[in-house]
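ARCHIVE CARD
SHELF: 3
SLOT: left
DATA:
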Amino acid sequence: MGGIVLRPFAASDRRTLVGFAEALQDNERALHASRRPGKEVSRAYVDDLLKNVIGKRGMIAIAERDGVPVAFVACWAESENDPLLRGPHRTVVQVTDVYIVPEERGRGLARRLLAAAEEHARQLGIGRLLIGALAANEMAIAAYRRYGFQPYEILFEKPVEPGP
């Protein structure tokens, strides 16, 4: 993929990351009514994202085309104390965010971003990646499957009319 460079997040990227988070939230909002508008949540979301990346051995990679940010991926290590899971399955690298500007979608950039998350897991000595997607986000699900992700758990939703 010519012209695309992946690099680590820098403090000077915060404004760009807020813009990406806003767009990502608005994309998901178009897919499910549960999502708040991106403008309402993007700054606080990025604050939490950065806190988790720092506190949980995470990373953020920014993709640039000709020096202009066009995508990002974020992930961090998570440990579960679930007694039902065997030892090595209790620690994962959770890919929390993948965002690509619309004009760069469908060009294989998701593969490069996911490979960066996988390499981060490898460097941490963690042998498992997890990622989530809204069920209606068919493009993301297809990209994750192409990269080798398989369904692990499926979360179902049923709206219930509230009582009096």
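SLOT: right
DATA:
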Amino acid sequence: MNVKIGVLSDTHLHGITKNFMDIYDKYLKNMDIILHAGDFVTTEVVDFLNSENFHGVHGNMDPFDVREMLPPKRVIELGSYRIGLMHGWGSSQGLEERIRPEFQNPDVIVYGHSHRPANHIRDGVLFFNPGTTIGYSSHGIHTIGVLNVGDEVYGEIINI
């Protein structure tokens, strides 16, 4: 198995923009799977990404209609790997500690909320946050993520 997963979070878009289309065409359209860790802000983005290879969860800034479409968390099983997907909540400090108990035996936890990229292993779990693709960035950098799944799983953060 050799699977490439494009990972987004915190797009905070009120519609599909040319910038978002360019990012999708350049980085995401050839991915095997696309994950979005919440804060779409509109159903237009969900509808645009929605296909059989898309998995998303809603975030704290998503309106009711997005929350009706997407769950607050999900687990994607890919071969022998379990990938937990959740937005997150509260302060950026301690975020990983709060979301870890939400999943049983994950290999990877993909999350958003903080708008800060993360790609590290803690207690045998890969914590992966793609940062913000287009939304507000306190550090001025917009990023997406790629998870490479094969004999092992590793992540890459890409500055866009």
